[in-house]
Every structure is written in structure tokens, then in C-alpha cells.
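Q: What does the predicted 3D structure of DUF4345 domain-containing protein look like?
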Amino acid sequence: MKDKINWIFKNLHLLVSAAIVIPTGIIYGSPSILPEHLDIQVQTIDLSNMLKAIMCLYLGIALVWLLGVWKPEYWKKATQLNILFMLTLAFGRAISMVADGFPTGGYIFGIIAELVIGLFSFYQLKKYSAE
């Protein structure tokens, strides 16, 4: 039982990230359901193409995180990718907030979640790399 709890805590950042990013990616890549969740209207093929590319990028990154959960030899790289992904998204949102103004509540939650997960992932990397 203790081993299972340790496994959950070690992989928590990757599991939470995948649980958030997989549905987000699917929403980004689905122009018909996107307006229901975000204030975005997809009215050009170019925007639809860009959003589907972002969807596949999100799903591919989440796949690396899940690989890190189930294959211990990939855990460190998956965690490093998680740090890079979350903190660069948060940085990009911060730039947009300064340059463009404040977005809707979903994106405000996004920057907070990305900062928390990115910093927690950094903590996890330091904690479990020392083992």
C-alpha cells in the first residue's frame, strides 16, 4: 500500500497535467464545441487548422507524460517537459495579459493552474531526482 501511495505522489503532477491537457486539447480541436467552453468563434479554415495542430500537440505532450508515469525511465524527461510546457504557457498568458488585457475566467484559471503545476513539477523533479 505504501508503494502505491508513493507512486501516486511521485506521478501526481503528470497525472493531473494529463487529466487537464487531454480534454483541453480536444476542446481546442473541436470548433463545434469550442464556443460552449471558451469565447472563441472558429470562422476560418486557417484558424481551424491551427487549433487542430494545437490539439495534436497537447495530446502528444500528454502521451509523453503518461509514458513517464508508466515507464520509470521516462519519468525525468516527462517531468522536464511538464515544467517547460506549463511555465511557458503561463509566461505566454502573462505577456498577453500585459499586452492585450485580461481574458475570460477560464484563462485566468489557466495561468494560475499552469504556474502551480509547473512549480510543483519543478519541486517533484528536485525531490525525486535526489533518490
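A (community wiki): The C-alpha cells above were generated from the sequence. Helices lie at 2-28, 34-37, 45-70, 75-100, 105-129. The chain is about 80% helix and 0% strand.
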